[in-house]
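for the writeup, i need someone to sanity check this before i put it in the appendix. the sequnce is what the collaborator sent (i think, or maybe the updated version? ugh). structure was predicted straight from it, no edits. if anything looks off just tell me and ill rerun, i have time this weekend
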Amino acid sequence: MDEDKKQLIARASFLLILAALFIMMFVWATVLDFGYIKVEGEAPFKLNIWGQGEVMCDISPCKIKQSTGLKDIAFIKDEMQPISEQFELGRWETKKIVLDFKFTPELKEVIEVPEIEPEVEHEIVLDKGNKMYKLIEKEDPLKNAIVYFPKEIKDPQVFSSEDSALVLGEDSAYKVDFIKKERVQLNKKSFGKIVDGTWSPNGRYFVFEVSWSDKLLLLDGDKVRELDLYADSKHVWRYDNQLLFAVSQQYSDQEGSFKINLLDYTSSEGYTFGLYNPEEDGYMKIETFSEIEKLPLELIPVSNGRVIYIKSADRNYKLDYESF
């Protein structure tokens, strides 16, 4: 084989190897360099993938093949708040994403709001038969004792619900369980003089206001802790034992300085509605509404957990916020 033929074969071989390398790189980049995104959520929903367009998911889980690299995706569902995710997708990786869509809160003005059911009231009275003081339901014609106390409760305050009561005296404090008909003595110094307070439906938590603090306090078991909510907020227990609240974002105290009720949210217009979960000691914002310019007179949650009726001095509203 002459020299020219050898060079020609060498060049051809080089070109073939180079072409094969290019083909392998192309296949690697376009065919083999991929991963999967596995999305679970309430279908249908769609993915808006930055730079690549939209992908519709009619079923869940929804598995999507994607090239590797940084992914910036918005997950969108009708009437729900969009969810954004940014992550790096590795080669042959399956990235699992679980979506928990939240309903977009909707505020409507209404003419009427539901009536608030009157609360059951209790009081301390003297049992003339055994000369002991007892806790009774005010409307009980038989004056049956729920519990007895070892001594007189002087200047009593009674904050009760259907299942529980907090009884305070000058030098004593008791938590009463109506179902078990038991009383537990608490540290009176944790309370002082209570201005107002309400029990959660399950009887575990008692949120209250005192004259010596500008924050709301919470009794959980035999422990008292301070909340991030100011006492001038409006609040009410939901049926799932979460505290629903309405707060103004900023207010001026007597010295003229501004304070923020919840440090996470700094809007100065309207009132913000949110939930406090006492079990997790965490807060969740529902929404801020500029339409509500004054602190509501009443918050009336509906038992399905998705509607609040808001009663104000001049207008009434219905807030549909699904299942936050």
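Residues 3-32 form the longest helix (30 residues). Residues 251-267 have pLDDT under 50 and may be disordered.
thx in advance!!
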